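Researcher: Next entry in the queue.
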Amino acid sequence: LELQSGTVDGIDNVGPDDFETVAGDSTLQLIERQALNVMYIGMTNTFPPFDNEQVRQAFAQAIDRQRIVDNFYPTGSEVATHFTPCAIPNGCEGEEWYAFDVDAAKALLEEAGYGADNPFPTVKLHYRDVVRGYLPDPNIVAQDIQAQLQENLGITVEIDVMESGAFIDAANSGSLDGMHLLGWGADF
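Model: Structure for this entry, 188 residues:
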C-alpha cells in the first residue's frame, strides 16, 4: 500500500500474495532476484528420538522437499541443497543435503531400532503462525510435512502452533522437544 501510494520508492521481499497486485499495476515493477533465505526443519538432538543421528537422517530423507517447494512456494523458488543459499558467495560449499529416498529412510529407522516390535513414537512439529520470506504459509507447510511423514514412514506428527515470542525463545534455548520450522535469511 505504501508503494502504491508513493510514500516509498521501493520495497524488498514482496509477499507472494502481492505478486499479482504488482504485476497488475502499470506504475509498479516486480524485479525478481535470487532468494537470500532458507527454510529448515530443525530437530533438537538432545531429546529422544532425535538424539539418534539415524533418526534425523531418516526424517531428512523421508520428506519430499521438492513437493513442498512446488506446491507452497512462489514461482522461482528452489529446493535448498545447503544451509545457506547458493546466491551467497561460498554458500553452497561442502556436501549437499540428503536426497528424498523413502526406502533409505525406512532402512535407517530399522537400523535405529524402530519397527513392528518397537513402533516409532508420536513426535511434535512446533512452529509459529507467522509469515516469513522463508515460510510464506507455515500452516500448510506444517500440514504437508505431517502428511508426508505419515504416508512415507507411518509416523504420527502432532502439530504445535506456538506464540511467536515463546517459539523463538524455545528454539534459541534448545528446549523444543521435537521438530520445528524456522529459517535463515542473509543478515548483513
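Model: The first strand starts at residue 37 and ends at 43.
Researcher: Noted, moving on.
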